[in-house]
Amino acid sequence: MDAIPTKLVLDSWPILEWLKGRQPSTRNFRQILDAVFSGETELAMSRINYGEVLYSIRKDFPPERIEAAHRAFLELPIRYISVDDAMVDEAAALKAVYTCSYADCFAVALAIRSDAPPVTGDKELLMLREIGLQVLWTAV
Amino acid sequence: MGTSGAALIVQDDGNFSATPELQESLQLSPGTRLELIRREGEEIRFRIPSAMREIKSWRDLEGILADFPADPNAELEAERQAELKRDAL
Questions:
Q1: Does the distance separating the beta carbons of A62 and B52 come in below 8 Å?
Q2: Which of A58, A117, A140, B73 could potentially form a cystine with A16 if both were Cys, beta carbons 3.0 to 4.6 Å apart?
């Protein structure tokens, strides 16, 4: 993985890979968390992508573990950014032009607005490189 | 375990049904996931993934789904592909 920038936008992909424990994404995500805890970097995530993680937990965890998993997820050092009207417009504009999911467009819109590279291993987000944005790639 | 000859029936919707006796014998409850190990001729082997460990902090989430068939990114990818297919229409 490349050097960790001082601020990052998190897509749902690295968290879901981390839950699954796949490498090298898990090791890379842990390294990012260490950097956040030591104050070297900041991690932001759109509420839309937060929702993707949350509904995956609700769908894939045993019922008796869902609430504990949700609480633990909220302990992660991530600043969740709510979506405003302008961000919906920005995500819609991206969706109309690029081949990516609507949820991914919110991660991209937040990355552009925050001037922070997204952290992902989702190949769909490689299109960011086409528009000149840096991507912190956590997959193989 | 006294399960020899007990049958699992595949329903029209793809779900399996098991008699109450078989459920009790194998300790299966609604929602129990069975992971396919392998098929050898007429014999099919499944396993029940070990129970999910207790979650006390965010650290416990790392790799917690490793032994479970659930794969959230694969599920999201399938959703995204369906979305992109609709977009292409």
A1: yes
A2: B73
Q: What is the pLDDT of residues A96-132, one digit of tens each?
A: 988 888 999 999 999 999 999 999 888 877 777 777 8
Q: How far is CA B53 from CA A3, A22, A61, B32, in A?
A: 33, 18, 11, 15
Q: What is this model's ipTM?
A: 0.89
Pair of tokens at residue A1? 């993985």
Distance, CA of B83 to CA of A124 (rounded, Å): 13
For residue A84, the distance in angstroms to the closest alpha carbon of chain B comes to 23
Grade residue A12 by pLDDT with cuts at 50, 70 and 90: very high
Interface of A with B in 67-106 (CB under 8 A): 68-69, 71-73, 75-76, 99-104
Cβ contacts of A26 within 8 Å, gap of 6 or more: A17, A18, A20, B62, B63
Cβ separation of B66 and A21 shorter than 8 Å? yes
Residues of A in contact with B75 (CB under 8 A): 56, 59-60
In chain A, whose CA is at the least distance from the CA of B31?
A62
**What is the separation, in whole angstroms, between the first and last Cα of chain B?**
54
Chain B interface, best mutation among A20, A78, A106, A108, by max B CB count within 10 A:
A20
Chain A: residue whose CA lies nearest to B53: A65
Q: How far apart are CA A31 and CA A102, in angstroms?
A: 28
Per the DSSP assignment, residues forming a β-bridge with A9 are A44, A118
Q: How far apart (Å, rounded) are the C-alpha atoms in residues B53 and A86?
A: 42
